[in-house]
Amino acid sequence: MSKPLVSIVDVRKNFGDFQALKGVSLDIHAGEVMCIIGASGSGKTTLLRCVNQLVQPDSGAIWIDGELNAFRIEGNRLHHLPEKEIARQRLATGMVFQRFNLFAHMTALENILEGPVRVLGRPRAEVVAEARALLARVGLADKENSYPANLSGGQQQRVAICRALAMKPKLMLFDEPTSALDPELVGEVLQAMKALAAEGMTMMVVTHELAFAREVADRVVYMDGGVIVEAGTAEEVLGNPQEARTKAFLAAVLS
Ligand SMILES: Nc1ncnc2c1ncn2[C@@H]1O[C@H](COP(=O)(O)OP(=O)(O)O)[C@@H](O)[C@H]1O
Ligand SMILES: [Mg+2]
Q: In the list 59, 135, 159, 218, which could disulfide-bond 140, CB 3.0-4.6 Å?
């Protein structure tokens, strides 16, 4: 198999005395869709935040496309990267949150342009064409001039996905992207994510949507108490779980 796009090695993270991640290791290959499931408080969000460096692990290492997060290796020494370099590394990942976090005073199109134009300094006209293509892909071609307040939650989340994609990330992180949505709006967001997966995007998706995981995930990871309890194909983890904790979690979710 090829070298992993993302390599997470024995990552630990404490908040005070509380151990949120107790040594998590995971490889994600290019084009792979990994769904992460687990009860609230199990460390799923912290893991995603470590990958895109919204938090730094206390120990362990995360490699993205051959680059070590937050450190430069010189001989056998590690040097902390300056914040500017970390900001550059952060651009390798796009993140979609439970709450869409769109800028309320900007239209859908302006929300998507903001990063490429302001952060990357790309020519606006060029980015506008790309942003329109992204909106069309998620079925929102007619909404480019709408403000978030005039979009449904599902539409706002699809704009948020476009905004992340406009930065051309190597990897997309989704943290419960549908759990704040009314039930009838969940499907349209999952549909956009499915299309993205089909195009070969590498994705880490924290979700409670087990039907989505079964259909789209190449791998499912079950976390509990800051560790990976079980990982495998969707068929293995969801269809034939081996660990008692996984079985109990699935029984509770499906009941
Ligand atoms: N910034 C923080 N400060 C203190 N505790 C935190 C912080 N972030 C997360 N935690 C704690 O770490 C644990 C794991 O949180 P999280 O990664 O958000 O879990 P999940 O996403 O699986 O619900 C929780 O008990 C949470 O309260
Ligand atoms: Mg969470």
A: 135
| Torsion 208-48-194-124 (CA) sign | positive
| 58 vs 224: CA distance, rounded Å | 19
User: If you take atom 4 of ligand 1, which residue's CA is the nearest one?
Assistant: 15
**Ligand 1 midpoint to CA 11 (Å):** 15
DSSP β-bridge partners for residue 28: 6
Task: Report the run of H or E that residue 28 belongs to, with start and end.
Answer: strand 18-28
Residues with CB under 5 A from ligand 2 (ion): 44-45
Q: Which pTM was predicted?
A: 0.96
Pick from 11, 25, 30: which is nearest to 218 by CA? 30
Closest CA to 95 of 57, 142, 47, 130: 47
Q: For residue range 85-144, list pLDDT tens digits in order.
A: 999 999 999 999 998 789 999 999 999 999 999 999 999 999 999 999 999 999 999 999
Nearest-angstrom CA–CA distance, 35 and 115: 27
Interior/surface letters 77-91, b for 16+ CB within 10 angstroms, e for the rest: eeeebeeeeeeebbe
Euclidean distance between the first and final Cα of the chain, in Å? 38
User: What Å distances lie between residue 157 and 14, 26, 39, 175, CA to CA?
Assistant: 31, 27, 23, 12
* 8 Å CB contact between 131 and 113: yes
